[in-house]
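Why predict the complex rather than its parts? Because the way molecules touch one another can change local conformation, and only a joint prediction can capture that. The input here totals 665 residues.
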Amino acid sequence: MSQKETYENPDLKKERQNCPFNKEEITNLLDGGKEKTAERKQLENYILSDEQLKDAVPMEYLSHADKYAEELRKACLLMHKLENSPAGQVPTLRALMGAGLGSAVLKEGNPLALHYVMFIPALMGQGTIDQQAKWLAKAYNLNIIGTYAQTELGHGTFLRGLETTATYDPNTQEFVLESPSLTAYKWWPGSLGKTANYAVVMAQLYTKGKCEGTHPFMVQLRDEETHEPLPGIVIGEIGPKLGMNTNDNGYLGFEKFRIPRDQLLMKHSQVLEDGTYVKPTNSKLSYATMVFVRVVVCQDVTTNLRKAVTIATRYSCVRRQSELKPGDREPQVMDYQAQQNKLLPPLAATFAFQLASDHLWNLYNTANNNIEQGDLELLPDLHGLSCALKALCSSEGANFVEVCRQSCGGHGYMACSNFPRIYGQVTAAETYEGENTVLWLQVARYLVKTRKEQTGGLSVKYLIGEEKGPKTVDTTLEGIVHLYRRTAVGLVDVAIAELEKSGRKGEAPHDAWNHAAVYLIKAAQAHARLFVVESFVNSLKVGNLSAPVRTVLSQLCELFIIYWLLERSGELFFVRQFIKKRLVTVEFQVRTLLYVKLLAAIRPQAVNLVDSFDLRDEILASPLGCWDGNVYQRLFDEAAKSPLNQSSVHESFHKYLKPLLKSNL
Ligand SMILES: CCCCCCCCCCCCCCCCCCCCCCC/C=C/C(=O)SCCNC(=O)CCNC(=O)[C@H](O)C(C)(C)COP(=O)(O)OP(=O)(O)OC[C@H]1O[C@@H](n2cnc3c(N)ncnc32)[C@H](O)[C@@H]1OP(=O)(O)O
Ligand SMILES: Cc1cc2nc3c(=O)[nH]c(=O)nc-3n(C[C@H](O)[C@H](O)[C@H](O)COP(=O)(O)OP(=O)(O)OC[C@H]3O[C@@H](n4cnc5c(N)ncnc54)[C@H](O)[C@@H]3O)c2cc1C
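Output of the joint prediction:
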């Protein structure tokens, strides 16, 4: 960072003095070790020093088509750079696909992301060994570029309702792909519009006159030389979106398009030459690619949140506004308790989400290895937890990013602040890979089943048997975690009671379920929060942390746990044993004794904590969040890039405004 040598805002300089903990220790912790930090830094130098990967003008000033072309140029250049990357191909790819290094170069969505995040994983998870041998090397070498085409114009959530058909013709040993209506058109897949020439397509499999449900098919969409759509393929891009505008989300229709039988991905289920269908051991195995992405989305959201928090925290220590003590100099806005209340919970959340996502990643790897050996025991727990954390991290993450933006006042509304882009990425994750409400209901289904049948995986063990632990109000960390547990159990019980009440009234189970949705969603959310707070608390018990780092992380942990408790205190009313009086007592004790005290305790370390994320200026891509705090000069420099500032009078003045000024209307 060359700015470090030339200028440092005096307020930020002061914030950085006398840091009681070793920032590098936290950096190493987040990276996964000292060596990993060194590798990351080397990789960042390698990628970010390349002049050809820098934007000539800010992306906002380009047209829709030019934005796509420019991002594709950089994405392809990045792929060339993979070959010589000092960190090796896979770690480089991982870094580029994630929200950190990748978004420093590819600002509005990576047109090759789906190839790596969904197409390759789908081939690996759904293809037989022979199919992998045929397609994977080509995919890795970028001889072909693929996407994952599942969602249709008419259906995204309800996969059993997908309309695209793949009908087996035993005479030619081919499947015939067809989009029987406009609503059957694939709609949304990333990279589909212009980039991909292949796709894993989810379609209803028909053989011997019977529908066997949705299955994955490997389909060539475009000519490998000319890139023209193949006959029978109708393809295009769906147009501008709230964010991620350089990822060419597309549409796709099939007009009696034929593919060979062996392009059904047959790892879990098969269609034999004569059309005989061989069932999978579990019909949900064809949903496995989504499970993988839900897991990585949690990490992606966390990295994005770290950027937002860094920008907002540094800016809040540079920005001076209003009067705290009459007659005194205007204070740093970070010194207002109200500002700390906005920013310190999301700062703590970055740690909470990272630790929970790490647990989920470990579960994913274990479960996936077991599945490869034919053991599906961990699948329900993996499904439940991946849905829960994906929904929680993305919804809370999007809210926190918005709060970070608000905490920067007007300047946070500028495109160059980078908040619009970060928000666009994080809020997209609330919808894609399973709309969050729908995922909460999946989680609730698992919780209700566990509680009623008294059997379930590790993440729901607390629902089995009688709920143990103190029944009195306890403000220790363990006591508060217990309160979360009691709330989660209580909310599941309340939801079950609602279901049973509807049952007694004679409602069918599906109606009872619909009428209990509000309770079910609350129960699922309480479960997800419990998992996150337990992960945070347990992670601090283990691990080789120095005393100062343990202290600051423990403060953040405590703050976060109490923050959520206060935010969600209304939910305690749902749980019978918490009478109003006791709730008020808890609120009072917690708020006065702990929360506010913790805000004040963590406040002096806010800048040091975000510094320890070690996010380079190029990655933050925001004049508000730069390491040197030279906010005003940088905002001014950004404004100078506006095309409207390239002449003193714009040509439109002569065309429109001048005639108006001269006319009498
Ligand atoms: C050179 C080297 C190369 C190396 C390559 C290395 C690559 C590294 C890459 C690493 C990446 C790093 C990080 C990158 C991060 C970037 C991330 C950003 C990019 C993201 C791009 C995203 C693009 C988006 C894509 C999409 O959106 S795809 C479409 C997604 N669609 C959905 O999610 C649809 C949601 N709907 C559903 O899932 C289902 O329909 C439903 C679950 C809601 C309902 O289904 P159904 O009706 O069939 O089921 P029921 O409700 O009846 O339930 C029946 C039972 O089934 C169980 N169930 C359901 N689903 C699952 C499941 N998935 N798994 C297991 N079990 C499941 C239920 O629990 C029920 O069970 P029960 O009967 O016992 O109760
Ligand atoms: C940026 C982005 C990228 C995407 N990339 C891809 C991709 O690469 N490949 C791909 O195949 N798809 C992709 N998608 C599509 C995405 O997976 C779907 O949009 C998502 O699964 C939601 O489905 P839907 O749009 O049909 O919403 P709907 O299901 O129609 O949701 C509309 C509303 O109905 C509610 N609802 C629906 N069902 C229920 C229910 N059972 N109970 C209660 N409420 C319900 C929802 O909560 C929501 O409020 C992408 C989407 C976005 C935004």
